[in-house]
Design brief:
Layout lengths: L1 E6 L8 E5 L4 E4 L23 H6 L21 E3 L5 H4 L11 E3 L1 H10 L12 E3 L11
Parallel strand pairs: 3-4, 4-5, 5-6
Antiparallel strand pairs: 1-2, 2-3
Amino acid sequence: MHFIIHRGSNEIGGSCVEVKSRNSRIVIDIGVPIVTTSGKRFDFKDYRKLSREELITSKLLPNVKGLYGQDSGNKPVDGLLISHAHIDHYGLYNFVDKDIQYHLGEATHKLINLSNIFIKDRGSIKKVVYIQDRMVLYGGF
């Protein structure tokens, strides 16, 4: 098993960790940074006009092969686990390929949907498996 920390170890917020085994890959969180590299409050409006590829190049979106759907040569990730409903853990989910399965708690899903009432153009999380305490998601790990 391998852990790849794509973002969040040297910054505040923006959590994104990939977990790989021989046959499976899941991503834990896809968050928005809280502050910029200069320490100022992060504002996505500064990046709104960039394409998905430009967001990856600018390192706003973590470069996770098979997560966004535009890289057809890569196997899609097997799932995206959202740990909790803080924007620095789920805030970039609207860029994720719509065929990716989400794993999150029901309350987390409800909080994200409530937050989306106040944020334009967020979309909703459709393919959901609700997780429970001590639930095994992928037996191969």
